[in-house]
Design brief:
Blueprint lengths: L6 E5 L4 E12 L4 E4 L2 E4 H7 L11 E5 L6 E4 L25 H12 L2 H15 L5 H5 L17 H7 L3
Antiparallel strand pairs: 1-2, 2-5, 3-4, 5-6
């Protein structure tokens, strides 16, 4: 189960579908589902029904759509749809208006202390268990559970002088 929600888009042959992501499953050359009364590999389905030859059938599939069904899409076929960008203009109003719920969520997130944010991030990274993920191990990748310090510079005084009336 993914601890956050996002959507993915993929080509269904006739159209592009954008659906919610429920999790990550096994590779396309291993995962099977029922199609027309028989069990079919995800790789076979994409090659025969959608005429897509998978270049990386050993990569995991993304479980999308209804949680009651086993809709699996190979990783290489997915894309993340463009996210809405909310840009603040110089009069401190949003160029795209946020809903009341979005505004409330943004204010709550901004008001949360830094140590609470840090703890949530550390818990999520630990929960994802990258150290046990077979593809990361296979490619020699790793993700450290600890945060790192990145040197930076405080720019408040520059902005204060630049945007002053």
């Amino acid at each position: 189960m993914i601890p956050f929600s996002f959507k993915v888009s993929y080509n269904r042959g006739q159209y592009i579908a954008t659906v919610g992501c429920n999790g990550i499953k096994g590779p396309a050359n291993v995962e099977k589902f029922e199609c027309d009364g028989k069990m079919v590999l995800v790789q076979e389905y994409f090659e025969t029904k959608l005429k897509m030859k998978l270049q990386y059938p050993y990569l995991p599939c993304v479980w999308v759509g209804s949680r009651e069904e086993k809709n699996l899409v190979p990783m290489e076929v997915n894309s993340l749809p463009r996210l809405h960008q909310y840009v603040v203009n110089y009069s401190n109003t949003f160029s795209l208006m946020l809903t009341d719920y979005q505004t409330s969520a943004m204010v709550n997130a901004a008001a949360t202390p830094a140590d609470v944010h840090k703890q949530k991030i550390v818990e999520i990274v630990r929960g994802l268990q990258f150290d046990r993920y077979p593809y990361a191990i296979r490619f020699g990748s790793s993700v450290d559970n600890q945060m790192t310090i990145i040197p930076g510079q405080h720019l408040f005084s520059m902005f204060k002088n630049y945007f002053a009336p």
